[in-house]
Amino acid sequence: MQEINGKPQIDYPTQWEYRIIGKDKKELEEIVKEIFPQGYELKDGQASSGGKFVSIVVSAEVASEQERNELFAKLKNHPQVSMVL
Predict the structure, then answer these.
(1) With b meaning 16 or more CB within 10 Å and e meaning fewer, what string describes 66-83?
(2) Which of 17, 26, 58, 71 is the most buried (most CB within 10 A)?
């Protein structure tokens, strides 16, 4: 990855990870199934100290910056998702 004008140069296709935070792990996994119809890999994230929030990490190959941003927007705008990193 090379940085050009303060923005990293990413060569596509590439593997990209999204950390998804919400209140229910099973719900988050179902959301990932809806949004990522192609292959993906799931990893457990951490739970908040109070146990109110959980996270999962989804890794998928993205073909372009547009696809990467579209997937992020779909996750971010889902009502059951609290945050996406």
Answers:
(1) eebeebeeebeebeebbe
(2) 58
The pLDDT tens digits of the residues spanning 12-40 come to 999 999 999 999 999 999 999 999 977 89
Q: Measure CA of the first residue to CA of the last residue in the chain; give whole Å.
A: 19
The structure's pTM equals 0.87
| Residue 44, both tokens | 């457990």
Single-letter code of the amino acid located at 82 = S
Residues 6 or more apart whose Cβ sits within 8 Å of residue 20 = 28, 31, 32, 45, 55, 56, 57, 58, 75, 81, 83, 84
Burial of 7 (0-12, 13-18, 19+ CB in 10 A): exposed
